[in-house]
Amino acid sequence: MSFDSKIEAALNAQINNELNASYTYLAMAAYFESEDLPGFAAWFRGHAAEENDHAMKIFDFIYKRDGNVELNGIEKPKAKYGSAKDAVAYALAHEKIVTGQIHEIFSMCNSQKDFGTQNMLHWFLEEQVEEEDLFRRILAQVEATGGNKWYLTQLDNQLERGDTGETAK
Ligand code: FEO
């Protein structure tokens, strides 16, 4: 079955969305560096790399389906935040937007009967559930500091050690 052009365009747009997320998190890493919170900075930097991997997953899939990748411009990311809480809340909201984008393509695949693409998107559906859960957890921890710099530094140390409070699933 040939690759539907609407699905191909939607996947291309999603490459852009994932790269956009990557750039947003890289800008957050820069923000946290400037706030002397290296644990948060490293955590967001890791997430920027993950989003880049997500884009490449779709990139490779498009060529597997004999389609073509067309890259678009990436928006200038938000660089300043009022607080750590604001930044993490923004990141969680951004993840929810990405979840909506994946759902949109998933349902488009239904109407086009593109079950191969839909199958590939299962990985993204699961990833979004995990990412939203993780970002929500970090946000709760940041909120629990009440903006207290000492507690925030403890949380920063925790993130620097790679401890996000996640349980093995
Ligand atoms: Fe690739 Fe965090 O969405």
By CATH, the architecture is named: Up-down Bundle
What is the highest CATH level, the class?
A: Mainly Alpha
Strand content: under 5%
Number of domains: 1
Structural class by sheet pairing and helices: mainly alpha
Helix/strand layout:
Layout: H1 5-34, H2 38-64, H3 84-112, H4 115-144, H5 149-160
Helix pairs in contact: 1-2, 1-3, 2-5, 3-4
The structure holds MU-OXO-diiron.
Residues 18, 21, 51, 54, 95, 98, 131 line the site of MU-OXO-diiron.
Question: Which tags fit this structure?
Answer:
binds MU-OXO-diiron; 169 residues; mainly alpha; Ferritin; 76% helix
Give a quick rundown of the structure.
This protein is mostly helical and 169 residues long. Helix content is 76%, strand content 0%.
Give structural notes.
It contains five helices and no strands. By secondary structure, the chain is mostly helical. It has a single domain, classed as Ferritin (Up-down Bundle). MU-OXO-diiron binds at residues 18, 21, 51, 54, 95, 98, 131.
